[in-house]
Amino acid sequence: MTVMAYMLLAAAVVFGVLGAVNQEWLRERFPGGRGPSAGASSGWRRVLFLVIAVVAAYQGYKGLRLVDETSWSADELRQSVRQAAAALEEETHLDDPYEDYSSLIRDEVVEAGEGLGPAFRVDVEAVGRSSYHVTATGAGDGYCMHLSQSEDEEGGFMVPGAGDQGPTRVPEYTLSARVGQGAC
Question: Under DSSP, is residue 175 helix (H, G, I), strand (E, B) or coil?
């Protein structure tokens, strides 16, 4: 898609130049042509070339915008992953019995990258027990996020017991995140 957009922009430049220059040399090179006078023919040709140049430039620009809106750059993903890591460390979380924070990390990356890249192009894959590989379309190798959790001393809440059982304390955990570039 990017190649096509650049080809349209290159075509716009070529047609723009053809529309801007005097094309009498074509008449001199191919004498004896039939049709309207050289001045009228040249004028319409120049207008046509300029119109084609404008249309090609517009379509090329739209193509580049579409590519930008449907993919992430490496800088956009780096910024979003680092903001997501900081956000994960700020809040307490309930323990995940499967020890898989993939969806939590993905949600934080998407929230941090709102307006930068498309949410549907972010992928978080668990690699090992506490490492996650974060990738996005167009952003290269991605990033590795290592999480470690520790029980929050102040966090948690009490759940009333059923029957003769007393209340149960449900602990909350703080997460510590380290981010590195590339695969885990």
Answer: strand
pTM exceeds cut of 0.90: no
Overall size of the chain counted in residues: 184
Burial of 113 (0-12, 13-18, 19+ CB in 10 A): buried
d(Cα 24, Cα 72) in Å, to the nearest integer?
48
How does pLDDT run across 33-43, given as a tens digit for each residue?
554 455 556 67
Burial class (CB in 10 A: 0-12, 13-18, 19+), 88: buried
CB-based contact 84:108 (threshold 8 Å): yes
- Digit-coded pLDDT (tens) for 20-64: 876 666 566 666 655 445 555 667 888 899 999 999 999 999 988
